[in-house]
Amino acid sequence: MNNSKFTSEVLRQDPSLLRNSYPTSGKWDMPIIKKSEVDITGVKLIRADHIRRKDNRAVADKTVHFFVEDNKLDRYYDNPENYRLRLAQYAHVLTPDYSLYIDMPLSIQIYNTFRSRYCGADWQDYGLSVIPTVSWSTSESYDFCFDGIELGSVVAVSTVGGLRNNKLSKEEFKKLFLEGYWEMKRRINPRQVLCYGTAFCEMGEEVISVPYFETIRRGK
């Protein structure tokens, strides 16, 4: 037997390699996160890097967010199954917020969007209450960054870190953010929007804003 050929056949059937376990949408095959009938009014957030394997604190009403540095996110995509039980202790889970920088190649932006959707689809399949995090860069990203999210879903966005990471002025960031936000509303028509950070007044009444400093205090 040709061992190398056998190994290749086994690997091609491994879902962790192919990442083809869930239904997809769009030409880039983004895993679909199904719409959940959740209410995020009064939401309380906790950072993903603050959660514990067995959390004895009063956490059942908290929602886990992944608005953290990218180097802290790889573990969730590499082994999403390792975090199912840990995340199941909390009310809801956002999907990882992999960066979409304006000077990042589109191929990497597509991959980062896929990774976020895949984690959400995996955790939702396990029974967790998942809220998709939506990110975008320029209008070129609209071709993929809203895929995998059903119409009328509750979603999360962030206004934190955009100025520093994208090297934009405050006015440039606001313009770019709102253009993407309005495109998101047109394509997804979210029922509620969780905004991590200060929301812009132009974003609409469906936005529930959780200030950055408040999430840090609550997470401790």
Task: Give a quick precis of the structure.
This protein has helices spanning 3-12, 15-18, 74-78, 84-87, 106-126, 162-166, 170-188, 212-219; strands at 24-25, 30-31, 44-47, 62-65, 92-94, 130-131, 155-158, 193-196, 207-210.
Spatial order of strands in the largest sheet: 3-4-5-6
| Count of distinct structural domains | 1
Beta-strand content estimate: 5-15%
Helix tally equals 8
Structural class: alpha/beta
Show the helix and strand layout.
Elements: H1 3-12, H2 15-18, E1 24-25, E2 30-31, E3 44-47, E4 62-65, H3 74-78, H4 84-87, E5 92-94, H5 106-126, E6 130-131, E7 155-158, H6 162-166, H7 170-188, E8 193-196, E9 207-210, H8 212-219
Pfam families: DUF4417
Protein name: DUF4417 domain-containing protein
InterPro entries: DUF4417
